[in-house]
Amino acid sequence: MHRNPANTDHRARIRLFVEYDLEHHHAVPATPNQHSYLRKVMRRRDGEMVALFNGRHGEWLARIAYEGKSRCMMIVEQHLRPQRVPPDVWLLFAPVKATPMNNIARMSTELGVGRICPVLTEHTDVTRTNTARLRSNAVEAAEQSTRLNVPIVDEPAPVAEMLEDWDPARRIILCAEAGQAVAIPDALSELEPGVAWAVMTGPEGGFSHSELDGLAKLPFVTPVRLGPRILRADTAVAAVLVCWQNHLGDWSD
Amino acid sequence: MHRNPANTDHRARIRLFVEYDLEHHHAVPATPNQHSYLRKVMRRRDGEMVALFNGRHGEWLARIAYEGKSRCMMIVEQHLRPQRVPPDVWLLFAPVKATPMNNIARMSTELGVGRICPVLTEHTDVTRTNTARLRSNAVEAAEQSTRLNVPIVDEPAPVAEMLEDWDPARRIILCAEAGQAVAIPDALSELEPGVAWAVMTGPEGGFSHSELDGLAKLPFVTPVRLGPRILRADTAVAAVLVCWQNHLGDWSD
After folding, report:
1. Domain residue ranges in chain A
2. Predicted confidence (pLDDT) at residue A152 exceeds the cutoff of 70
3. Is A97 within 8 Å of chain B by CB?
4. Which one of A12, A239, A251 has the shortest CB-CB distance to B238?
5. Contact assessment for residue A47 and residue A31, using Cβ atoms and an 8 Å cutoff
6. Contact B58/A at CB under 8 A
7. Could you give the CA distance from residue A121 to residue A155 in angstroms, rounded to a whole number?
8. Cβ neighbours of B251 in A, within 8 Å
9. Residue B1 — pLDDT band, cuts 50, 70, 90?
10. Which one of B230, B235, B245 has the shortest CB-CB distance to A238?
């Protein structure tokens, strides 16, 4: 994205996610990380522009105002894009090792999920997740993918606990390797566009048989198969989200 | 995949790619890496079984026969699956840094590509690729994904050079962020299943305008858009291959 930081003509616009309200003339303080990124990594000078979004007020252009060496304000100047409501799809996934899990947070953010929910299944080996790390991966991916919001990242929860409070109006597309699952293109073409969705992928080694049976019996769950080859956890997440965006999300014209 | 190597009941079958012919009673020598993987990583004992494939003779069960501490033969015993011809799709992609490039080799193998071709474009920063590393990623992904063959991995070539010898019967689906590209679900639904395909993704920063214009003018190229958010290089590769497998490949029943 940022091939040539020294060349002001061709360099890409920096986008930063902030927690603050965004309005004309507001002064938003950069976090220490943002300050260091702007000054040292991207070599932005005083008075140069940066884009800001907060998930509520769309995207804005702001002017960089360094205050000494350790502080930086971003003065909000121009409204670029209104906030829009993205397609409503959550990701439920069994935690895996750090590298594929960070891929999952990043790729699912690029692919438009609204919520990232680590779910502990019977065969889940990795029961602790670095939630702060997942969140920072999601923020970075949102900044780079031109999203206007950042997905919520939940703490891990056992699958039974998660299903206790489940709103049955939110349909789940369950990636099941075994059992009576239908091929995903066929399954999706029979689903009617709904308001709220989730996709769910299992751990390395798959769901247990009893778990899969229990999930598949729920009226809001559609089990699907992702092709004839076994996919690693992160590839499976990308695959089901791409299919969802194609059939039910915002990838069509 | 291999959660509990010590438990012989539930452990997954090991699959190894070999170069040798596979026939009843053939003795196939394990490479030093394969030997070390069988004995030390997976703790397979003398007389236990391993699955072998070579891309030509289907999948076979073979019996492990250690010869001292440093050698191991695999005695071919039982034919498991005949060789099948997978859908014919190649991947053309601009090389990126090592981590996303290894993701690309792995995920595209899981997603069924027959050939992995690094292509140098105008904005390609990374011009050297570790072809041996890409190949070993592809072999490992083929072993774990239950494929019966391993994709060919080419040395990188400039895009113009690659197009000089291009067989126009092999259609290219070009992932273009800019220009007149059609949304991929709409583009694919209008393409007729053909015999031979390739998908092509650009570098971080995208294709140059002139490059994109030149490619889009070729009669065998269909430019597509992958949704409204910017995808990183590895996510884009996974996305276009998932779309292809859904519409034209082997993911439907």
Report:
1. 15-81, 89-247
2. yes
3. no
4. A239
5. no
6. no
7. 14
8. 183-185, 226-228
9. very low
10. B235
Mutation site for A-interface testing, chosen from B84, B109, B110, B241 by largest number of A Cβ within 10 Å: B110
Identical fold for domains A15-81 and A89-247, yes or no, is no
* Nearest Cα residue in chain A from B205: A1
Strand partners, A175: A224
- What sign has the CA pseudo-torsion A137, A140, A144, A145? positive
A231 reaches B (C-beta below 8 A): yes
Retrieve residue B183's tokens: 């949304």
Copy the structure tokens of residue A76. 């909000």
Angle at A178 between CA A172 and CA A182, to 5 degrees: 55
Give the type of residue at A5.
P
Q: What DSSP string runs through B185-197? A: HHHHHHSPP-SEE
Å from B70 to nearest chain A CA?
A: 31
A89-247, what's its fold? Alpha/beta knot (3.40.1280)
The least confident of A43-47, A84-88, B147-151, B198-202 is: A84-88
- With contact defined as beta carbons under 8 Å apart, do A240 and A182 qualify? no
Considering the segment(s) A15-81 as one domain, its CATH architecture is Beta Barrel (2.40)
Largest CA distance in chain B: 64
Determine the Cα angle at A93 with ends A91 and A97, to 5°: 130
ipTM: 0.93
* Sheet with strand B59-67: strands edge to edge: B15-17, B49-53, B59-67, B71-81, B27-29
Q: What is the DSSP code (8-state) at residue B20?
A: S
d(CA B41, CA A120): 26
pLDDT band for position B5 (50/70/90)?
Answer: very low
Is B229's CB within 8 Å of A146's CB?
yes
In the numeric block, which tokens belong to residue A16? Answer: 């930063």
Which residue in A232, A235, A253 is closest to B186 by CB distance?
A253
Whether the CB of A239 is below 8 Å from some CB of chain B: the reply is: yes
Closest chain A CA to residue B202: A1
Structure-block tokens of residue A138: 């999601």
Nearest by CB to A250, which of B1, B182, B228? Answer: B228
- Beta-strand (E) ranges in chain B? 15-17, 27-29, 49-53, 59-67, 71-81, 89-93, 115-120, 152-153, 157-158, 170-175, 182-183, 196-201, 221-225
- Determine which of A96, A99, A111, A235 to mutate to test the interface with B (most B C-beta atoms within 10 Å): A235
Our CA-based measurement puts residue A234 at a distance from the nearest CA of chain B, in whole angstroms, of 9
pLDDT in tens, A45-72: 999 999 999 999 999 999 999 999 899 9
Residue positions counted in chain A: 253
Distance from CA of A243 to the nearest CA of B (A): 7
